[in-house]
Fold these 3 entries.
Entry 1:
Amino acid sequence: MAGESRRLPELNQDKYDTDEQVKIICLGDSAVGKSKLMERFLVDGYRPQQLSTYALTLYKHSTTLNDKTVLVDFWDTAGQERFQSMHPSYYHKAHACIMVFDVQRKVTYKNLSSWYQELREYRPTIPCVVVANKIDADQKITQKSFNFAKKQGLPFYFVSAADGTNVVKLFRDTIRLAVSYKENSSDFMDEVMRELENFALEAKGDGPEQNPETTTETTDPDTTV
Amino acid sequence: MTYTPKKCGVKFKPPAIILIYEDEKTKKIRQRSMPVRNFSKFSDCSRAAEELKNNPRHKPFLGGVSLQQLQKLYQLLRNSLSGLSLDRSLEIIHKENTIDSEEDLNKLDDKELDQKKKIMDELFEKNRKKSDDPDFVYDVEVDFAQVEPIESCGWDDEETNEDF
């Protein structure tokens, strides 16, 4: 934890554990339109925060869902995808993922499988949606089948960042998925991490002034287990 | 004084950018030759194009000629100075200015990627609905109900043979 925040001082990710905060990440090849989709959704929203050191752009958004305020941080890459791999902190604590390809470029569709594989290494169970962008270039494409999403059992959207088709729907649906994932997290790794953190906190809380060696001997056996 | 460009090209020997334009006042078609100086096979084409476009003597004539086109003409000249045939040169320039569906853009350097993004941006801007357009709608939802039989995108074919 401490190591994480030291490496990324601007990016204290502990806030994503609080109830109202969710983190949604964007994945996909260079130039598939990830940033343009973000900008289309947030039209007159906050200006994004550029963290060039981390090749990262953060977009903040707030909305209300079931009478509750939700603060969303959208994480977008700023060239990091060129290495066809993202830094693990990009995936850390993410609650949903938007995976984008360009309907005009086959290679961006083929690369979805490696992006998806990497995502699942870090976040085995977070909701992920697949987005076919740039349908304005050729509307006929929407009558064709793209089997990747179906095969992986993921929601699929035909969108255009240029004319806005389905962009707002895509983001609203994803925010809903992120929130519901957070509320009913069944992610095994999440559970394990939470347990470990609680355990560390309890241990600390038991005897802040004592050194660890004596703690085991002096504390009540009920509280140490 | 208004000049409407009709055609713009390049001459290799001696090197010059040639513009055929119409003088709006006299309605006459004229040709202007702009000699290219201090240009070698190592020169920067986008810089040369900008310099020509901003040259006080030529500026009034080049208002309607895009920077991209001038840049392309300088590229042709540069390739010719490097000994490339015109056909090969045109092929290279065509490749640089179009998007290949199979080319992995993750592998390009910043400059090359920006060039490709610029090409893609042209279509984006053409189809773009801006938030200040009078007919702008924020939430555009379209249900693309697919009608059977659904044709494959053709990009899944290789996978169908594999056990995934």
Entry 2:
Amino acid sequence: MTGHPAARPIPTDLERLAGLAIVPRRYYGRWVAAAIILLLFAWVVKAFAEGQIAWKVVGQFLTAPAILNGLVNTVIMTACAMTLGIVLGVLFAIMYMSPNPVLRGSALFYIWFFRGTPLLLQLLLWFNLALVFPRIGIPGLIEFRTIDLITPFVATLLGLGMNQGAYTAEVVRSGILSVDLGQSEAAKSIGMTRLTTLRRIILPQAMRVIIPPVGNEFISMVKLTSIASVIQYSEILRNAQTIYYANARVIELLIVAAIWYLAVVTLLQIGQFFLERYFSRGRGERRSRQKANRGIAAGGPP
Amino acid sequence: MNAQPAPIVVAHQVSKRFGPLLALNGVSLSIAPGTVQCIIGPSGSGKSTFLRCLNQIEKIDAGAILIDGELIGYRRVGDTLRELSDAEIARQRLATGMVFQRFNLFHHMTALENIIEGPVTVLRRSRREAVDEAMALLARVGLTDKRDAYPIEMSGGQQQRVAIARALAMRPRIMLFDEPTSALDPELVGEVLAVMRDLARSGMTMIVVTHELGFAREVAHDVVFMDRGEIIEQGPPAQVLLSPQQARTREFISAVLT
């Protein structure tokens, strides 16, 4: 390096320059993009409004008893299957990470099997369990006819829940792995057992990583329940189909079902937002808090 | 020195291996109650590993450790040593409190929640009693106004002082410090050392792995210099730090001071 390039002269009215008003940058591209998107949207809305859709029929069936009944069944199944899935997921994630080879092996097998076969096949397997075991129970003590026990509800719950558990196990495992090892060392150092450490220290922090994908899967589950129509579980889509087989208003009833699915998913998304905020306490809002701290540090004494 | 009290910590021929690396090679050390034992040495010398073995975060491969006369990690049955259960090891850890280099405060809890977590969930004390005691401890480390702050909202020095309060809340017999000031900005080291000095004055038995030779000279009753998993030199701070007998100790101390 040989010397610096000649410096530009400093403006003489530096005082005035520092006091000039600031004009924010203009984003013309955004306005153009917004206009195009609005136009496209208006065109789609117009098409649907003028199309061969009897909107009166949509409004009429939106609150029909069969539809509402299906909606309730869909919501109940989503909640039950996800609960089963999350419980199994946590259980198998912990088993998978256990030093005990028997537990680890079992978890590995479970995840391998339920992730490795199609959900539809699993549903059919559960539904037809009576073909394999006509009666189940503890011999001599209590026994049921399988056909009475495995109703469409039970078969769907087992199928969806156990399949979900295999996926959630991997999500929970990645959440647990995301927690710094120093956290469990600190927990040990205050005399916590492994189980207490998991419950009080590791899982609450893993939730931050677990919630977004599980929320995603929750939303998937709402729609996955529709697959249960093949084994006669009367969720909303199946009930909508039953109606349009009778009245031939196919699109209208599909729109009714779509509206309800969107409504349920919207509620879930709102719930997820609040859950995420709760579990990111002490972590989230990092940026705004740091800014606030910096402000205090700059103003206050050291 | 007459009528010496029984040592509260006895390590006898302790060895620890990490794969091919011999992290501790026959370390023997006795510590009298109420004393401050500093351990110095280059990184990788095994000093932190030794501390983690005392707290059973690491398992030793050979030798024996007794804390307050109790064999750590094993039960003697005839001529064999039986490994203790998870719950029994957790109970034994109550004798020692640990302060980590990287603080390791529970991120999802406020300062106060960090301190009462052990007393409430492990010792099953009432929450009110635990909170009262935690507030006294926060006052002792000078952080009463940080009771509702999350770790991320505190400086490193403040986090480490809360970590000390968290360990003290379990009323341990011995406090272990694993390079407690190494991760701190230089201007924050003083506040943590002040809390530790205060703790030493109160008569707490302390084992401190540190690079703060000034602190060791001022507070320690005894200093150990470790290198490559072995104790090279041991004695009063004036001797080990100011006129070391071993060449390796001299080398280390002059390297730290320059």
Entry 3:
Amino acid sequence: MLMFIARRLLTMLGTAICLTFLVFWLTNLAPNLEKIAKTEAGSRITDAEVESWLDKNGFGQPLLVRYGEWLGVLPGWTTTDESGAVRGRCIASGQDPAEAPRFCGILQGDWGYSRVFREDVASVIGTRLALTGKLMAWVLVVMVPGALILGILAGMREGSRTDRVLSTASIAITATPEYVSGVVFIAVFTSSAVGLKWFNGSATSAMDDANLVNFTLPVLTVALYAMGYVARMTRASMTEVMTAQYIRTARLKGVSFPQVVLRHALRNALIAPFTVIMLQIPWLLTGVVIVESLFNYKGFGWTLVEAAGNNDIELLLGISVVSVVVVLLTQLISDVGYVYLNPRLRLS
Amino acid sequence: MTHTTKDRAVHPAALLYAEEVKTGHMSRREFLTRSTALGVSAGVAYGLIGLPVPARAQDAAMTPVEGGTLRMSMELRPTKDPRTWDWSEYANFGRGWLDYMVEYEPDGSLRPMLLESWEANEDATEWTLKVRQGVKWNNGDDFTAEDVVNNIKRWCDGTVEGNSMAGRMDTLRDVEGTNQMRDGAVEIVDPATVKLHLSAPDIAIVTNMADYPAAVVHQSYDNGDPAANPIGTGAWLPEQNEVGVKQVLVRNPDHTWWGTAVYGGPYLDRIEYIDYGTDPAAVLAAAESGEIDAIYGTTPDFVEIYDGLGWAKSEAVTATTVAIRFQQAAEPYNNRDVRRALQQAVDNAVVLELGYNNLGLVAENHHVCPIHPEYAEVHRPPVDPAAAKAALDAAGVGDFEFELISVDDQYESASCDAVAAQCRDAGINVKRTVLPGSTFWNDWTKYPWSCTLWNMRPLGVQVLNLAYKAGAAWNETSFNNPDFEALLAQANSIADADARREVMAKIEQVLLDEGVAIQPYWRSLIRHTATNVHGADVHPTFEHHHYKWWMEPVN
């Protein structure tokens, strides 16, 4: 088991390095760097000034060297300007160059500086991830029980009217992307045009103080989409279990139907949905990008949009690392949990 | 409200202007702008034309209430050196703790703020500024003539990348040499008096100090983030400063604001600016949710919706506009015939109707507005799509695909769509590109053909100095025409409206002949606020005068 986890962590590291390098390469293409120079030093500077600005600010070195600086395996760049002052990647403004550390990459715990938000990347990601965490937590609270109940009710008696109705409903909500359902919800439940006005169409105030009025719609928009999918999986798993021989035996022995479902079928039927739910989490992270932008909830997804729109290199890299960790960590939990839930796998 | 001592002689030009108003040669608004710019107080100015000073409507009806939190939608940008501010939003946050020398009022007059009064000599080459006494910085220092000089010196520094104030202070600068303030241009007469010696007549020098990059900073300011160490004379302090998310101003409890004794206010305890992006539907959702009490500006399509919500509407007629300009450094816009042909294909009235719901005035492609004092009527070539197409064919770009770039804001985008559609009707191949605000404004001066928002300036010459003068920081057309330069310099030195109008007619003609831009309409600005918000009417130049704002408590 320990070997397995260690192997997984190594995969995670490898994936993170590959992905961040890819992001690094894309954000450091020449036109992107030119854009950065122009935002920082003024949009009217000449091509020669762009070059000199890039050189002065450490962008002139080879790509791999700069990537190494970001990782913290190579020493950060330094330059001496005309007045003799030494500036560098690792030298904070006002700091004595002699006292500054040589290395300052993520290995040293320095995630860099976000140009868009004018803040340390670590603190931007920290704040925004916490907000998205809050959203995701409520999504899971709504989605998991909802999906399981729907799936179990539908899968109990395959082909019954309940099954047909619930299956149709879950297919319908899964087939509706967030950007459709979100807009429909806003139009129906928040606007004066329809007149219901039950909820808020903006979740900005939910960042400080989430309540039923301002947080329901974003949570529901993300949850519904995933709910249909998980419900379908639960149903499939449930119908399979319900046709197993031990269920028939239990029924023949005279155990009541609810007893059969709750005592005998449920645990076995939950193994498949558990994996699906864990795999759903990284998938939800992409849905969050849309929902957060739609409802102006300034979390991780919104930050990603802002960072990408402004080619904020270090923030994008930080986001990539976090995404890789979230995806692979949930997969790890899902695998470990699967083994735990299924004794047959534990023995092999 | 009298700031010039009564027994001092009124500037002779102001008397002339008053005559012009009486004979109908000058509008009242224009008169107020021009006479207060010469140092005549608003009270005296109104008196010269035989009118009482208008009380603000709410003053008559209600007494302002202290306290409360006002939340307003606004795009929030990173704080930076005030003189490099290129967007009103920067200033509206900074106004919390930074005051201005003078303030441009919605009625067109100039209100003395940190300057108590000012006076020009006959040909507007020598200005005497009186520094308001008793003003304290929030760190306890006195505001003195030294501070005035320090700020003028900062504004004059043309070596700072993006310092647009330098262009406004040209008559105080050594433009050819050091690119700094001229020696002897500014003289401290006594701790309460500063004298400006201009290199040429400049009628707009004090008016320029009301523009939003002219926030007055303390001598210890290090040109970095002004919110990091917010020393200012203003009544509030920045509490939260999260770019793109939220910026909060709170009343400074340890500071007595000078303006309370002079103008009253401030009333609000907190002002929260919240960013909802550029989508007006998101702002509407926030307004309907009760997350905000006022919106920054209402886009035309949404006016009826906010009216329907029962929000109070305020409207300001302005010289704010969009310039769908050509970058003359880029192919094929370096050809004058191409630019003129594209202008000729577009009926500006249609653009106003489709792009801005007819909420404004049709403009004439030369960026001088009828509400500007020196506006002159010039003949504009008629709209003729067939001739436009023929001219483009003749120029060899009949099959060229023109690309028209705009930001994704609603009316700018809609206006460009209206322009592109008319071009296509004329048989011209036009592609539209819409970029998000965060991307678009990084490169706004660079695009070959794109749409730029221009705020109004009180005088017609001001915006021409900023946008079309060769080498100006915001010259986005690369326009560099010797005739224009000479005429503009001449216009800048003529204080008399009628005399300047003659030069202006020639300037407008040059701009038309050179086809600088399709400048389709002058916008009316609209803002909606919740009904309990008072004093926060929309300002023609988007300025937020926080000290006038107050709210009735909601029961």
